[in-house]
Amino acid sequence: MLAIRSIAAPARRQCLRANGVAMLSSLQTRTYAAGASTHEKVAKFHGKKGSDGLYTVSLIEGDGIGPEIAQSVKDIFKAANTPIKWEPVDVTPRLKDGKTVIPDETIESIERNKVALKGPLATPIGKGHVSLNLTLRRTFNLFANVRPCRSIAGFKTPYDGVDTVLIRENTEGEYSGIEHVVVDGVVQSIKLITREASERVCKYAFQYAEEIGKLKVRAVHKATIMKMSDGLFLSTAQRVAKDFPAVEFDAELIDNTCLKIVTDPTPYNDKVLVMPNLYGDILSDTCAGLIGGLGLTPSANIGDECSIFEAVHGSAPDIAGKGLANPTALLLSSIMMLRHMGLEEQAVRIEKAIFETLAEGKTLTGDLHGTAKTHEYAGAIISRL
């Protein structure tokens, strides 16, 4: 790697001048509230029922198989008498002042409803607009990505009994988007870590651990090498831990975590893992592999004002419209959404029906070694309600 100090001074001054505005802008747009009360709940749901007794949820069906799996969710929620109505929104990107943005009416919908469910979105590789997923996270300051990884009864993998949770800081780190050409053939990418962002995601991790009864939080880092950036994240986690005396805290190097969790994931079942952005991106997909892949893995992007729950698998355009898609990841993400909204009773009923259908193994989609169509799988879940 090329250290900053190894770059010639004129080039270094040039690159810092060129990116000073971007770095300052990134810092100034943070809305994290440092020094919050120990007992203040982070990222609570602010939505209200309408006069019809229903919550309105913004629905981003997504690309490819998105509309099909979204329909399964809508059918199952209707059968379960869930007090939710859907408000479909469009996230087709637009260019505004040279930047990729989502439509104003979509932003207004999600800000109004405080919660959204999102299917898969396709992003061109190496060209076109930037990731819409990243745009959504930045637009709504969704600072924590929550990825539970739990073995599915009825779907055998090399690992049994996996049941861990990863919480990834979602807004900065290597994904801050601050990079530039220093000189021809030399590119520098700046890893941004702030105390405010680290504090907020760590507080959420401890709070989440208390809520789900996993009273151990482990910070995953590489502070042995990135002593200032990861060191700040780690020291912030250590400080936040003092505000949660009922929760045990320790830390582990990211490379050790990767080695140990694929050797034996069982010791991680009683823990919530919290980590900076890049590590969380890699490790959460690693853990998804332990339980059968992204098609079985739910995900939530949590913010102070609103949150978006999503399927993180691809849009699978090759099978779109054929009724072959597996809606499990989006369904389990919608269960996380219900719990976030305080609709525990409905969450338990639907989740139980999903897991019973998977365990029985008679009406599964092709990726789960079955022959059922998408609507047949959803129908089997509905029959258990």
TrEMBL record:
<dbReference type="InterPro" id="IPR024084">
    <property type="entry name" value="IsoPropMal-DH-like_dom"/>
</dbReference>
<comment type="subunit">
    <text>Octamer of two non-identical subunits IDH1 and IDH2.</text>
</comment>
<dbReference type="GO" id="GO:0006099">
    <property type="term" value="P:tricarboxylic acid cycle"/>
</dbReference>
<keyword id="KW-0460">Magnesium</keyword>
<dbReference type="InterPro" id="IPR004434">
    <property type="entry name" value="Isocitrate_DH_NAD"/>
</dbReference>
<dbReference type="Pfam" id="PF00180">
    <property type="entry name" value="Iso_dh"/>
</dbReference>
<feature type="domain" description="Isopropylmalate dehydrogenase-like">
    <location>
        <begin position="56"/>
        <end position="381"/>
    </location>
</feature>
<keyword id="KW-0809">Transit peptide</keyword>
<keyword id="KW-0560">Oxidoreductase</keyword>
<keyword id="KW-0520">NAD</keyword>
<dbReference type="GO" id="GO:0051287">
    <property type="term" value="F:NAD binding"/>
</dbReference>
<dbReference type="GO" id="GO:0004449">
    <property type="term" value="F:isocitrate dehydrogenase (NAD+) activity"/>
</dbReference>
<protein>
    <recommendedName>
        <fullName>Isocitrate dehydrogenase [NAD] subunit 2, mitochondrial</fullName>
        <ecNumber>1.1.1.41</ecNumber>
    </recommendedName>
</protein>
<keyword id="KW-0479">Metal-binding</keyword>
<dbReference type="GO" id="GO:0006102">
    <property type="term" value="P:isocitrate metabolic process"/>
</dbReference>
<dbReference type="InterPro" id="IPR019818">
    <property type="entry name" value="IsoCit/isopropylmalate_DH_CS"/>
</dbReference>
<dbReference type="GO" id="GO:0000287">
    <property type="term" value="F:magnesium ion binding"/>
</dbReference>
<dbReference type="GO" id="GO:0005739">
    <property type="term" value="C:mitochondrion"/>
</dbReference>
<comment type="similarity">
    <text>Belongs to the isocitrate and isopropylmalate dehydrogenases family.</text>
</comment>
